[in-house]
Amino acid sequence: MAKQPMLKFVNIERIMPEKRDAQARSADFDEIYAEYADEKAKEQASRCSQCGVPYCQTHCPLHNNIPDWLRLTAEGRLQEAYELSQATNTFPEICGRICPQDRLCEGNCVIEQSGHGTVTIGSVEKYLTDTAWEKGWVKPIDPGQERAESVGIIGAGPGGLAAADVLRRAGIQVTIYDRYDRAGGLLTYGIPGFKLEKDVVMRRNEQLEQGGVKIELNCNVGEDISFEDLRARHDAILVATGVYKTRDLQAPGSAAEGVVSAIEFLTASNRKSFGDAVPEFDSGALNAQGKRVVVIGGGDTAMDCVRTSVRQGAVSVKCLYRRDRANMPGSQREVQNAEEEGVVFEWLSAPKGFAGDPVTGVMVQKMRLGAPDATGRQAPEVIEDADYVEDADLVIKALGFEPEDLPTLWNQPELEVTRWGTIKADFTTGATALPGVYAVGDIVRGASLVVWAIKDGRDAAAAILDQFNAAAAVAAE
């Protein structure tokens, strides 16, 4: 084998944009990098111990056959490896980029557990699928036969898109209804482009449309079309709206100019990357450039906000979280990335109010962790007389998301919800209390991971197909 060039294996997202553009323009670099990446993928895949109990697979929500496609990669059988990886995952290139592998497959790798560093499963998965697209291995949606049954899907996020893919490949007539002007949900407007390039998402949207899936955009169910009309139009309905209602912070000054929600901030940034006109970004209202930024929250959305702020040219970026690092719900890998990029974390710190309008600072109260509750989780307690003011020109609230009141919005009181407002649905099939109506993803689970939405979408699509097949069998008797 020819000796490979001695290149540093660079995390591309940390390269400055202008440097990345220059590299992208270099055909010679691309060719060398591709060769190196191929060898790197094989090298990492060969580290898999092929253990008898594949914890990586059992801790993957999709139960991807990780050991076998790693083995195929190590043997250089990349097309076979890709085909195996996508057999259980509709969007492996997306999961390879944004799954919190440190909490799922990689975090449970036996090599990682033995202290020798995990196999970089996510990077290999991403490389396999990117290569598959480049080589033409990704099969178009081409049903063997068309069927008369139709399904209406409300929401073009990962759960809805995954279900549409499965149903359409079986010949079902599928129409997706989404309130936004581009399909993809949070994949398009919530996750920053440095983590998930938008052309990767648009490519999947195009594949679905080319395969016969109809996508009606700028369509708000309950306003532009009623839920009852959708039920009359289709043989089954799949609700995959996600959860977009931002949890608010009830504190003095929270309505001040410069105190914004995470979804507003991230959507403006992503729209700008598409080349859209975004007046709120251009005016500076949703732009961190030149500002002292404080992000409130400890989840992955908070990490998206702090890292986006760094890239927009913020003077300083701080993250306030009311618990300590060990109790942070977001990915530890994301926290490490943010720290390397200059973000300062203020642990055991919670906002009690905001100064100024426009905002000039966050009034912070210091916390400590109290005794564990019945679940073992320690509740934060206020430390008296330990308050201070954190200077800020832009405050981003990343406190999580809640479901909208769909029964009211859609005039469907029979659509049962939990005490948290999520739709009651069978966790295996997605079936709700309404006949022929299914629900998947965050609107059932609450704010969760993209990979869980993909699994739910695939499972519900299989259940819908079973329902149609059973009905067809009865009709044929």
Describe the 3D structure.
It contains 19 helices and 16 strands. It has helices spanning 17-24, 27-46, 55-58, 66-74, 78-86, 92-98, 110-113, 121-135, 158-169, 186-189, 198-210, 227-233, 262-274, 279-282, 300-312, 332-340, 406-409, 442-445, 450-476; strands at residues 150-154, 173-177, 214-216, 236-239, 245-246, 259-261, 292-296, 316-320, 344-346, 349-355, 361-372, 378-382, 388-391, 394-397, 401-402, 437-439. The strands form 4 sheets. Strands 3-2-1-4-16 form a 5-stranded parallel β-sheet, with helices on both faces. A hairpin with a 5-residue loop joins β10 (349-355) and β11. The radius of gyration is 23 Å and the shape is globular. The N and C termini lie far apart (63 Å). Mean pLDDT is 91; it is low at 1-33.
Q: Helical segment tally? A: 19
How many β-strands, per DSSP? 16
Q: What distance lies between the first and last C-alpha atoms, to the nearest angstrom? A: 63 Å
Helix content: 25-40%
Q: Profile the largest sheet.
A: 5 strands, parallel
Q: What's the mean pLDDT score?
A: 91
Q: Work out the radius of gyration.
A: 23 Å
Low-confidence stretches at least 5 residues in length (pLDDT < 50)? 1-33
What structural category do the secondary elements indicate?
Answer: alpha/beta
Shape: globular
The side-by-side strand order for the widest beta sheet comes to 3-2-1-4-16
Tell me what portion of residues adopts beta-strand conformation: 15-25%
